[in-house]
Amino acid sequence: MSDEGRAALTEPAKDLGPVKEQLRTDGYAVVPDVLTADEVAALRSRLVQLAADEREAARALGAPESDEAQFVRTLVAKAQEFRDLAVHPTALELARHILGPDLLLWEAFANRVPPGGPAGGAHIDQGPMPSDITWPVVCAFLYMLDDFTDENGATFVVPGSHRRHRDELTPESFAAGRVTATGTAGSVIVMDGRVWHSIGKNRTSDFWRHGALMFYSVPYLRVKENWAFLTPPEIVQDASPLLRELMGFKMWRSLGGPKADKAFIGGQAGVSSYDGQLLKEDEASGWGAVRPPWLN
Ligand SMILES: O=C(O)CCC(=O)C(=O)O
C-alpha cells in the first residue's frame, strides 16, 4: 500500500521509535505536533459546522437535547479535510506497526465534549471482537483539535491495560488505573485497540473540547462503518487509490470482491461479474478486481 494521493496535510518528520516503545509498554502514546495550527483550525471549523448542521437536523426530527458529547460520524463521506486526515502518513506508519502492513479504515468520527459534560463509558475499541482474540486487530488515532487538559475532558487511559484481560475492566479497576492523556492541539493519542479508555469529564463551565478519531483494522475484519453503503459514489470516485483501498474498495487476497462469481462465467482469468455485467480486473487504476459499474 503506498501513501500516494494524500493531499493537503503536511508531514512532519518524526522519530517514532520512542512512540513505538511506549505503545509496547503502555498500549498508548501521545505524539505532539502531528497537525499544524492551520490543519487543526480547518478540521475544527469543519467539525463545528457539521455538528451544528446535524444538531439542527436532529432538533427538526424532535430529538431530545443531551448534555453528553456530540458525535459526528462517517467523516470520510462528509468532508475533504477528514478524507485527508484518514491517510495521514504518521498514523498509517504507526497503524502498520501495530496491525501489520495492510489496513482498513474501520471508523472515522469526531466528538465535541460539552462544558460540564460527564465522563464517557470505559471501553476498549475492539470490544465487538470475541474476547479470546488477545492481539490487536484495531487501533485508534485521536487527534486533539483543542488543547486537551485535566479540566476540559481530556481522554482517560489505563497504561498497560492492553496486556490485561478485558474481563478485568470494571468501573473500579478503571478508576484505580487511569491517567489523563493531555496534550496540545495538533497532537494525536495513538491507542492499541485493547487499551482501556474513555472520554474524560469536562469540568469547565464554557469550553467545548473537540477531537477527531480515525480507527484502522486488520484487512480481514468487518469494518464498523460500511463505506460501500454510506459513501456517495462521487466521493468514492474522487478518492485517492490509497483511501479507496483503506475503505475496502480493493480486494485483499480473496476478500471484498466479486471473484466468487467466476465459477458461473467459466472462471476466465481477470473477468468477473456484477449484477449481470462483466467486470474486468483493473489493477492499473488501483481498483483491483472491484470496479463497480457506476464508476467510469
Ligand atoms: O474523545 C475521547 O476522549 C475518547 C473517545 C472514545 O474513546 C470513543 O468514543 O471511542
UniProtKB/TrEMBL annotation:
Q: Which InterPro entries match?
A: Phytyl_CoA_dOase-like
Q: Which GO terms describe its molecular function?
A: 2-oxoglutarate-dependent dioxygenase activity; iron ion binding
Q: Which domain of life is it from?
A: Bacteria
> This chain belongs to which protein, by name?
Phytanoyl-CoA dioxygenase
